[in-house]
């Protein structure tokens, strides 16, 4: 199995994970505005714990967004630096898909799930996923909107919905008909590198990788939010 270092700094959480050596190990902390100082030491500690070095890596993955403008740039920058220096491929992974996988691993599987992240300035990043299979399957597009603008997929049939992520902060402003079908809610969930890495392993195996100079964040907005 490929050895992949995964990074995520897309929200107030900062994390890194190493997969391919056993079940996978992770460092995860919630410390807003400290990602720049934390990430590299966390990577060093994780590699040391696993008895590995950067030269053992086959690829670097990162949470490509959506998320905080500043946070996304931190993970993308470190990823590019490592990939350039080590001549490694990069695997960009959706933070919303990582949230959906986290929900699945927590036992909240559903034919239809909503992953949502607080985008600040009273907006939400969101997307619908099928989460009743092996991996989350994106249904439609990843969207940035006001919470009032959340809509169900066109093929929706009334059913219980699982909802993951900090976008639930705006639950009271989401459409009432939609909220009425929320069967399980996990507002505390934030994207984590371990789930970025698990999705990256799948993408790496099917050749869905890019060069370091192609590794770009996905912001979903023209007017970015710093923080």
Outline the structure in words.
The structure is a single chain. The chain is an alpha/beta fold. It has two domains: 4-94 and 191-214, Nucleotidyltransferase, domain 5, CATH 3.30.420; 96-186, Nucleotidyltransferase, domain 5. The protein has five helices and ten strands. Strand 4 (59-65), helix 2 and strand 5 (90-94) form a beta-alpha-beta unit. Helix 1 crosses helix 2 and helix 3 crosses helix 5. The radius of gyration is 17 Å and the shape is globular. Residues 223-227 have low confidence and may be disordered.
Task: Offer a few descriptive terms.
227 residues; alpha/beta; Nucleotidyltransferase, domain 5; 2 domains; 5 helices
Furnish the topology, listing elements before pairings.
Layout: E1 4-8, E2 13-20, E3 22-30, H1 35-49, E4 59-65, H2 69-86, E5 90-94, H3 95-105, E6 113-120, E7 123-130, E8 137-145, E9 161-164, H4 176-179, E10 182-186, H5 193-205
Parallel strand pairs: 1-4, 4-5, 6-9, 9-10
Antiparallel strand pairs: 1-2, 2-3, 6-7, 7-8
Helix pairs in contact: 1-2, 3-5
């Amino acid at each position: 199995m490929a050895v992949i270092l995964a990074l995520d700094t897309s929200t107030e959480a900062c994390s890194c994970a190493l997969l391919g050596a056993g079940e996978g190990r992770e460092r995860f902390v919630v410390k807003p505005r400290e990602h720049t100082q934390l990430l590299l030491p966390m990577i060093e500690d994780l590699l040391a714990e696993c008895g590995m070095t950067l030269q053992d890596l086959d690829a670097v993955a990162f949470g490509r967004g959506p998320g905080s403008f500043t946070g996304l740039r931190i993970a993308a920058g470190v990823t590019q630096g490592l990939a350039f220096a080590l001549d490694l491929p990069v695997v960009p992974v959706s933070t919303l898909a990582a949230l959906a996988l986290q929900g699945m691993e927590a036992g909240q599987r559903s034919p239809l799930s909503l992953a949502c992240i607080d985008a600040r300035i009273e907006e939400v990043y969101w997307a619908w996923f099928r989460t009743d299979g092996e991996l989350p399957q994106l249904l439609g597009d990843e969207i940035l909107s006001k919470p009032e603008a959340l809509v169900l997929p066109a093929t929706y049939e009334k059913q219980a919905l699982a909802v993951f992520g900090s976008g639930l902060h705006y639950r009271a402003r989401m459409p009432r008909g939609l909220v009425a079908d929320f069967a399980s809610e996990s507002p505390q969930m934030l994207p984590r590198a371990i789930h970025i890495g698990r999705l990256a392993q799948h993408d790496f195996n099917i050749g869905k990788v890019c060069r370091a100079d192609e590794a770009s964040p996905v912001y979903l907005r023209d007017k970015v939010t710093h923080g």
